[in-house]
């Protein structure tokens, strides 16, 4: 920056030098063309002006020499190269700022898209699931409401106006609410013509008998509209569900064994 200022001052000095020389020449010409009387009267003033211009010219010449000397010294010290390097770094920094700005704008756009998608998922799934779960909750635990997270998990449970974290509930309560949420989600998807089987694996092991019977009744009613597959090691406990549709996997596996694995039968001699 200092080198550029010196270069500018040298250019200004050169220009003022030329202007002073031209002014002196014009003054001499005007003096020669003036009437003799006027020339005699103006000679002292003109000479004084010329002398002043000459002194100014000499000063400007000295300033030009000084600026040139400083520029040559700066060039020898590598300051021009440093200036070019600094300009290159500034250009690179500007490009980096532009790149980061583009990334920031993209991140803001992504955040907006994700937020919109989250709101849309709430509209499509969360609110309908909570709505479908309400009748089941009223049958099982009157006065209970649920709140769900964006990834379709139970967040908080409100019972008679008091909110509790889902993880803080008893094992049996968590089992029952989880089944109700899965059942409600299956009903929502079935309404959107995307019906899928609801598979429950050895569920409600911590549920007390009274609420277990209520849950079996809920599942039995839902089975009229949904395909519910219940896997359990305690088949007798779920006899009230739909015993006529029960399948013993051990017996089924034995029945499908190859004949070579069956015990040999002796014939009478």
UniProtKB/TrEMBL annotation:
Gene3D superfamilies: P-loop containing nucleotide triphosphate hydrolases (3.40.50.300)
Superkingdom in the source lineage: Bacteria
InterPro entries documented for this protein: P-loop_NTPase
PANTHER family: DOUBLE-STRAND BREAK REPAIR RAD50 ATPASE, PUTATIVE-RELATED (PTHR41259)
Name of the protein in question: Uncharacterized protein
Organism listed in the record: Sorangium cellulosum
């Amino acid at each position: 920056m200092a080198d550029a200022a010196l270069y500018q001052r040298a250019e200004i000095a050169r220009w003022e030098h030329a202007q002073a020389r031209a002014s002196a020449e014009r003054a001499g010409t005007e003096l020669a063309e003036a009437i003799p009387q006027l020339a005699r009267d103006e000679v002292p003033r003109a000479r004084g002006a010329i002398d002043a211009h000459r002194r100014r010219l000499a000063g400007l010449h000295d300033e030009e020499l000084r600026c040139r000397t400083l520029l040559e010294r700066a060039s020898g010290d590598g300051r021009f190269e440093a200036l070019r390097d600094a300009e290159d770094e500034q250009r690179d920094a500007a490009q980096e700022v532009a790149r980061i700005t583009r990334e920031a704008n993209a991140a803001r756009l992504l955040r907006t898209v994700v937020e919109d998608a989250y709101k849309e998922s709430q509209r499509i799934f969360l609110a309908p699931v909570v709505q479908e779960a309400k009748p089941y909750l009223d049958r099982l635990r009157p006065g209970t409401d649920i709140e769900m997270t964006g990834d379709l998990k139970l967040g908080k449970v409100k019972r008679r106006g008091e909110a509790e974290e889902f993880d803080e509930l008893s094992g049996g309560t968590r089992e029952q609410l989880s089944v109700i949420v899965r059942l409600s989600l299956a009903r929502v998807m079935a309404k959107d013509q995307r019906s899928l089987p609801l598979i429950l694996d050895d569920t409600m092991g911590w549920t007390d008998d009274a609420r277990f019977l209520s849950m079996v009744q809920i599942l039995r009613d839902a089975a009229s509209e949904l395909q519910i597959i219940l896997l359990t090691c305690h088949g007798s406990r779920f006899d009230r569900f739909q015993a006529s549709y029960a399948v013993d996997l051990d017996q089924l596996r034995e029945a499908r064994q190859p004949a070579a694995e069956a015990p040999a039968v002796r014939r009478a001699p």
